Description:
The chain is an all-alpha fold. It folds into two domains: 2-90, Uncharacterised protein YqeY/AIM41, N-terminal domain (Hypothetical Protein Yqey, Chain: A, domain1); 99-145. 76% of the residues lie in helices and 0% in strands. The protein contains seven helices and no strands. It has helices at residues 2-16, 19-40, 49-72, 76-90, 99-111, 117-128, 134-145. Helix 6 packs antiparallel against helix 7. The radius of gyration is 18 Å and the shape is globular. The chain starts with a helix and ends with a helix. GO terms for molecular function: carbon-nitrogen ligase activity, with glutamine as amido-N-donor. InterPro entries: Asn/Gln_tRNA_amidoTrase-B-like, GatB_Yqey_C_2, YqeY/Aim41, YqeY/Aim41_N.
Amino acid sequence: MLTDRLKEDLKNSLKSGNAERVGIIRLFISEANNKQKEKFGAETKMLSDEDVVAVLQKEAKKRREAIELYKKGGRMDLARKEEMELTILAEYLPKALSSAEIKAVVDKLHASGLVEFNALMKGAMKELKGKADGKMVGDIIKKKLGLI
C-alpha cells in the first residue's frame, strides 16, 4: 500500500537525517490521515491507494499553483522549495499520461458522439482519473473543439 511506502520512506529519511524530506513526507502522511478521518470518522478503515493518490494529486496541484505564483512574484527561493516538494511528491504518484495518450482518449470519446465541452470533459476525466492532470485534459479538449 502507498501509505506503507510513505511510512517506510519516512523512517529511512529519519535515519539518513534528510530533514527536508522528513518534513515533506510527514505532511503527505498527515494529509492522508486527515482524508481518512474525513471519510471514515473514528473507524479504523484504511484509505485505498486510489484515495491516497487523490490526496497526493491535490497536494501536487497546490505545489504547481504555488510555483507559478512565486515565480510571478519574483520569489525564486520559495519556488525552488515548492519544486523540490513536487519532485518528492512525484515519486509517489503514478506516471502521468502523455498529451498524445490523452488526445487519443479525447478523440475516441469525440468519435463516439460527445461534442460538448462539459460532456467530453466528464467522460475523459472518468476514464483518465488519477492518470492525467485536469487542466491538460481541458486544454486538449478545447483545442479539439476549436475553443482556443
